[in-house]
Specification:
alpha/beta; Rossmann fold; four-stranded parallel β-sheet; 4 helices; 4 strands; about 15% strand
């Protein structure tokens, strides 16, 4: 890891989300619990842990919302070691701004390519949104959020409505 990030507990955290929190929410609230209706997302370090959660638990998360992920913090992630066989019908929305850093856009393109090179590309659909004026901040992410949610969750609903 880079800087003073400390010792990461990402594996425990994503296990808690998938094995404890999500089942609790599904039991106590009206949800559609299948993976097609379940997503995880975040920005910056939240984007990084959301990638990790989505790849470690493809049977749980079918939608990933990734804004400006801090891939620099974990440069040795081996995406090729992740088994995406259960990742059928997975959508990944990635946003980044060219004004964030010299490495942000190349890193997310490298991530996307690593997933597509696994041969499971037919199982994972990407929408890559690069903002030429984008910076690493909540205002940019807030403007992008409605577009991301619509693409991740509503695109099938729109198609169904048009066909009926």
């Amino acid at each position: 890891t880079g800087g003073n990030l400390g010792k990461g507990e990402g594996k425990k955290y994503v296990r808690f989300l998938a094995d404890t929190l999500k089942p609790y929410v599904d039991k106590h609230f009206r949800t559609i619990p299948d993976r097609t209706h379940t997503g995880i997302g975040g920005s910056s370090m939240g984007g990084l842990i959301s990638i990790y959660a989505g790849l470690m638990y493809p049977e749980v998360y079918g939608r990933l919302l990734i804004f400006s992920p801090s891939l620099w913090a974990a440069p040795n992630i081996h995406f090729h070691a992740i088994n995406l066989e259960e990742a059928h019908d997975t959508r990944v929305y990635i946003y980044a701004g060219e004004g964030e850093s010299n490495t942000m856009v190349p890193n997310i393109k490298k991530f996307q390519q690593a997933i597509q090179n696994q041969g499971s590309a037919a199982n994972v659909e990407f929408d890559l949104s690069i903002d030429p004026n984008g910076h690493h901040n909540e205002a940019r992410w807030g403007r992008e959020f409605p577009k991301a949610i619509a693409w991740l969750f509503l695109i099938n609903q729109v198609k169904k409505i048009k066909h009926n």
